[in-house]
Description:
This protein is of the alpha+beta class. It has three helices and nine strands; from the N terminus they run E-E-E-H-E-E-E-E-E-E-H-H.
Amino acid sequence: MMLNRIVTDNTEVPKVVTASREIAAPADKIFELIADPSLQPRWDGNDNLAEARTGQRVRAAGDVFTMTLTMGSDRTNHVVEFEEGRLIAWRPSEVGIEPPGHLWRWQLEPVDDSRTLVTQTYDWSQLTDENRLPRARATTEDKLQASIERLAALAEGG
């Protein structure tokens, strides 16, 4: 897969970052933890999400949900890809503003009835807000992997 790259200070930073792990839980159980925004702060490896009100469970592309960040501001998330139990992706933005172009994607591939390959992708190849570039560059594979590890602990533990 070709990765878009940006050069800063003579170092290349991938604009599409991915992490994967097999989780010992069925895809539908894991998907529920991702598709219900009120559960996302429990597994957020970036420690960026504070809370989301209940009742915002994503059901289709075009849905919108709102999260409160740990710094206190709200983010609106516009769901752009959705397949129940398998795929969900959203573009975050400040409330009332068009998304600036970055994307969070979760893909779930059942291995069997009790195991699922989970892949998280952060894609900032279309990010247009220069103020967000430092944060985008800092979103590395290890941060994505931290979310997957927390998600695995929740899905496998209960």
